[in-house]
Each structure stands twice: as structure tokens, then as C-alpha cells.
């Protein structure tokens, strides 16, 4: 009440100073422009109907990227069949820019590394029928300043103070997606919801100028609970720290902890996804079983699928895992639900269920976190289904059979089994 009175007095004073008509008109114009920008951001998100899929440069290349690296990966995305399987973004992560600007404040890049500038690589990606992603930081100095990875520390490699200028620049270059990191934001103690709102609005204004929608990927590692505020402004938001740090080998513990941290099912809906981080499927050090377990967890989560391995050198086995159409369909299910834990009969032996589009359909993960092989049971009652139900083992492509009340199978240590369960009877509860 007091605040409202103070606000009215301030507004009245403003009206008296500026004169009725012009001040009202200006406030109305600013309001309309802000609304237009927010609408543009919202439209970009509305166009997203499934978790974004693609490839991102960070996990394999860290900051050591240039035109040739991105071009080779773009080509491999197409020739490997990943594009046909639904992977569509080629996301340039940290390392493309060393924080330099011209006298007007526009970002400048090393044209030895990026001939034709960033527009040329975005054009190349588009020429293959794919979408292009780029990367910056919400703060003044990006992660490449605080944690240099293969290049000297780069001060000024964030967009703070230049939000409108930079996002308009990305949009003019042709980028369709922008990941905004939080190293500078974090070090400077910025408020994440406020900063990302300003960024989302700047992206909206860029879109109203260029006509090109650009998706925002919020990357503040779960700080300040982005699942509570990011769904209004972005298609995906990171929920944890990195799944792999520069120079490390893949770790199943990190896969599991990132999976756990992403569990915010209430925040997820079509166009809005919890992001447990880019995939490490196919990176040196992971077995096929580990790759399948990792992808099963991302799929049941309905997470964005951004491959992070070297697509130009991957094995046929890795390619087959990444392009498995039934697994991808579970991830991309149009309901956009996040699978949740529905049972844990013994510590570390867990059952996750994701409601799929249609009637009586579930994706189920039987996850064995323990160090020894164990039986895990999915009971239809835990999945909200009345039996009987048919079971398909997704990775082995075997129709296992029809079961009255549930299904039990043996799951090796530290791996998961992915099932498609369909209630067969008329007593099925829908949904
Ligand atoms: C952070 C992000 C990573 C990656 C690096 C780049 O750590 O979480 O995904 O973008 O920065 O430095």
C-alpha cells in the first residue's frame, strides 16, 4: 500500500514535469515495445515442440574451435545420419571469441580462424539444412577468462553492457540458438532471474528487428533454481554443473548426478526442458553399455539431446546408439513429460517411468546403481497402469511378452534397461 502510494506520487510528479500527453505516449510506446520483445521470445519458444537435438562443440573441442572444426562436424552430422535421425542444431560453444570489440562496441573475431566472420559459418550450417547456435556469458568476462581451456584467458568475453548489441549481432549473423553461460554473472554476484530476463528481452528485440527467432539456452548450472523462472523465457535451462570438465574422462557418477539434479518434472512441458547437460555418449572412455545407459536416462528425462562427441571419428556402434529411433522417440515424445522415479524396492535399484503420448504407454528405465547385477521389477501399479501389459526391450529390439502385474529382469551393475510398456487390456487408465 505504502509502496503503491509512493509509486503514484512518483508517477504524478513525472507527469507534471514532462507534460501529460508526451509522457503517456512515451510510457505507452516503451510498454508496447517491451511487450513485442517478450512476445517475440515467447513465439520462438512456442515453436519448439520437442527437446532440442543437435551437436555442441564443447565436450570434445573445448575452446579449440574454428571454422574448419565446425564445418567438419557439420558435414559429419549429415553424413553419419544424425541429421536424418533428428539432430538439427550445430552449436558453437566457448572459444569462438576472445572478448574483442571494435570502437563501436561490436564483437570482432579472428578472421584467420573464422574466414568471412561468424556469418559465414552460420551460412554453411544453414546450407546443410541445419540450425546454428552460438554462445556468450551473462557477465562481463566469460568462462574463458576464469577457466581458460586451450587458449589464453580472455577478458571481456561476456555480453554484459552489450545485451542488445550482441544479441542483435548474433541474429544478424544468422544464429538460431544462443547459450548464455554464467561464469561472469556468478563472479559478479548478478541476480540470475533478472539478468536472464534482460537477455531474453534483448533476444526478443533482436528478433523484432531481424525477423529471425533465436532460442535461449540458460546455462547457470542450477544456481537460483532456474526451473522456477526460466520456463517463461527459455527452451532449456541447465540444472547442474558440467558433465565433464576440460581434460577429464567421462564418468558414470557424473552422468547419474546430473540426471538426478535435472529432476524437476513440474517445470517441464512442451518447449521447456530441464537440461542435465550435453551428452558424453561416444567419448573416449565410455563403453557401449555406458553410452546406452546415459542416453536412456536423458531420453526418459525428455532432455535436450546435444551430442558432444567427435562426429567425424565416431564408431559405427556410437552412431547406432545416437541414432536409435525408438530411444529418440521416447525423448521427443510430444507430451514433453519428464520421467520420474516410481519405485526403489532396494537401495540403488530404481524404476523410472515416463508417461508417453497415447493410451497406457510408458517408457520405463530400470536403473541399477549398485556394484552388482540385480533383478529389478517394474510393477504396472507403480506406473499407473492396469495389467496386462506388453513389454519391449528398446535397445535389444525384443518384444519380451505380455505380463499380468509387472516385469522383472536382471540388470548389470551401473547400467540401465530401457523398456516400452503398453497396457493391453480394456481396463487401462488413460494418460
Ligand atoms: C561452462 C558451461 C559449459 C561450457 C563451458 C565453456 O562450464 O557449463 O557447458 O559452456 O562453460 O567454458
TrEMBL record:
<dbReference type="GO" id="GO:0005975">
    <property type="term" value="P:carbohydrate metabolic process"/>
</dbReference>
<dbReference type="InterPro" id="IPR013780">
    <property type="entry name" value="Glyco_hydro_b"/>
</dbReference>
<dbReference type="InterPro" id="IPR002241">
    <property type="entry name" value="Glyco_hydro_27"/>
</dbReference>
<dbReference type="Pfam" id="PF16499">
    <property type="entry name" value="Melibiase_2"/>
</dbReference>
<keyword id="KW-1015">Disulfide bond</keyword>
<comment type="similarity">
    <text>Belongs to the glycosyl hydrolase 27 family.</text>
</comment>
<protein>
    <recommendedName>
        <fullName>Alpha-galactosidase</fullName>
        <ecNumber>3.2.1.22</ecNumber>
    </recommendedName>
</protein>
<keyword id="KW-0732">Signal</keyword>
<keyword id="KW-0378">Hydrolase</keyword>
<feature type="domain" description="Alpha galactosidase C-terminal">
    <location>
        <begin position="348"/>
        <end position="419"/>
    </location>
</feature>
<dbReference type="InterPro" id="IPR017853">
    <property type="entry name" value="GH"/>
</dbReference>
<dbReference type="GO" id="GO:0004557">
    <property type="term" value="F:alpha-galactosidase activity"/>
</dbReference>
<feature type="signal peptide">
    <location>
        <begin position="1"/>
        <end position="25"/>
    </location>
</feature>
<dbReference type="Pfam" id="PF17801">
    <property type="entry name" value="Melibiase_C"/>
</dbReference>
<dbReference type="InterPro" id="IPR041233">
    <property type="entry name" value="Melibiase_C"/>
</dbReference>
<dbReference type="InterPro" id="IPR013785">
    <property type="entry name" value="Aldolase_TIM"/>
</dbReference>
<keyword id="KW-0326">Glycosidase</keyword>
Amino acid at each position: 500500500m505504502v509502496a503503491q502510494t509512493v509509486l503514484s506520487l512518483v508517477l504524478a510528479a513525472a507527469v507534471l514535469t514532462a507534460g501529460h500527453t508526451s509522457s503517456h505516449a512515451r510510457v505507452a510506446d516503451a510498454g508496447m515495445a517491451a511487450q513485442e520483445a517478450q512476445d517475440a521470445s515467447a513465439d520462438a519458444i512456442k515453436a519448439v515442440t520437442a527437446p532440442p537435438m543437435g551437436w555442441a562443440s564443447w565436450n570434445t573441442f573445448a575452446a579449440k574451435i574454428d571454422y574448419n572444426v565446425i564445418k567438419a562436424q557439420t558435414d559429419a552430422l549429415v553424413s553419419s545420419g544424425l541429421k536424418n535421425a533428428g539432430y538439427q542444431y550445430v552449436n558453437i560453444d566457448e572459444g569462438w571469441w576472445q572478448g574483442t570489440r571494435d570502437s563501436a562496441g561490436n564483437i570482432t573475431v579472428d578472421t584467420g580462424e573464422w574466414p568471412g566472420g561468424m556469418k559465414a559459418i552460420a551460412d554453411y550450417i544453414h546450407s546443410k539444412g541445419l540450425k546454428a547456435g552460438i554462445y556468450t556469458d551473462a557477465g562481463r568476462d566469460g568462462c574463458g577468462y576464469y577457466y581458460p581451456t586451450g587458449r589464453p584467458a580472455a577478458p571481456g568475453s561476456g555480453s554484459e553492457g552489450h545485451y542488445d548489441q550482441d544479441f542483435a549481432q548474433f541474429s544478424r549473423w544468422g544464429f538460431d540458438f544462443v547459450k548464455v553461460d554464467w561464469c561472469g554473472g556468478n563472479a559478479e554476484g548478478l541476480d540470475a532471474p533478472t539478468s536472464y530476463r534482460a537477455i531474453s528481452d534483448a533476444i526478443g528485440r533482436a528478433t523484432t528487428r531481424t525477423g529471425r527467432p533465436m532460442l535461449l539456452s540458460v546455462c547457470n548450472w542450477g544456481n537460483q533454481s532456474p526451473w522456477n523462472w526460466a520456463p517463461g523465457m527459455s527452451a532449456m535451462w541447465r540444472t547442474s554443473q558440467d558433465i565433464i570438465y576440460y581434460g577429464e574422462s567421462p564418468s558414470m557418477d557424473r552422468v547419474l548426478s546430473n540426471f538426478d539434479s535435472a529432476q524437476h518434472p513440474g517445470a517441464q512441458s512442451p518447449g521447456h526442458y530441464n537440461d542435465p547437460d550435453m551428452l558424453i555418449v561416444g567419448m573416449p572412455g565410455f563403453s557401449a553399455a555406458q553410452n546406452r545407459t546415459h542416453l536412456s536416462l536423458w531420453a526418459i528425462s525428455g532432455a535436450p539431446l546435444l551430442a558432444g562427441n567427435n562426429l567425424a571419428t565416431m564408431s559405427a556402434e556410437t552412431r547406432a546408439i545416437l541414432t536409435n529411433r525408438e530411444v529418440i522417440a521416447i525423448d521427443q515424445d510430444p507430451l514433453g513429460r519428464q520421467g520420474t522415479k516410481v519405485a526403489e524396492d532396494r537401495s540403488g535399484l530404481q524404476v523410472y517411468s515416463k508417461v508417453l503420448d497415447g493410451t497406457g504407454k510408458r517408457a520405463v528405465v530400470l536403473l541399477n546403481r549398485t556394484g552388482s547385477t540385480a533383478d529389478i521389477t517394474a510393477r504396472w501399479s507403480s506406473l499407473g497402469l492396469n495389467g496386462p501389459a506388453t513389454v519391449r526391450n528398446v535397445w535389444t529390439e525384443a518384444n519380451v511378452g505380455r505380463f499380468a502385474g509387472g516385469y522383472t529382469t536382471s540388470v548389470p551393475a551401473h547400467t540401465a534397461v530401457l523398456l516400452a510398456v503398453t497396457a493391453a487390456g480394456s481396463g487401462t487408465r488413460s494418460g
